[in-house]
Amino acid sequence: MIVGLGIDVVHVSRLEHWQSVPGLLERFFHPEELAAARSRGKGCILSLAARFAAKEAFGKAVGTGLYGMGLKEIRVENDRNGKPEMILYGRAKAVFEERGGRRILLSLTHEHDSAIAVAIIEGA
Fold first, then answer.
1. Which residues make Cβ contacts (< 8 Å) with residue 41, sequence separation at least 6?
2. CA distance 8 to 108
3. Which of 11, 22, 72, 119 is the most buried (most CB within 10 A)?
4. Do residues 66 and 100 lie in contact, with contact meaning Cβ atoms separated by under 8 Å?
5. Domain carrying residue 87
6. What is residue 84's three-state secondary structure?
C-alpha cells in the first residue's frame, strides 16, 4: 500500500552556486554521495541536483517536510545496475518508520538545467 508520494524539481544553477560556497555541499550531502557524484566528472552537479531533489521529495512523501532531519541522514546511491536507492539514518529513518514506511521507490532524472525526483513510500 502506498503511504506517501513526493515529487521535487531543482534548478541545476542552484547547485552550481552551492559548489562555489566552501563546505556547503558537505553540509547537505553524505560523504559517499559526494564521492560518487564527483566520480562522474562533468555530470557531478547534475547528479547532486537529482539527489537533492530526492531528499526534498522524500520529505514531501513522509508528510513532514525535512523538518528536524539532517540532509546527510538521507543518502541516495545507485545499485550496480544504476537504479537509485535511498538509505536513511537517524531522525529520517525514525520518521519514515513512524509513518509506516517499509520501502522507498525512487526515480531521478536530469536534463541541462533541471533535476526531478519522485519518491513513493510503501507501507504494510
1. none
2. 10
3. 119
4. no
5. 2-123
6. strand
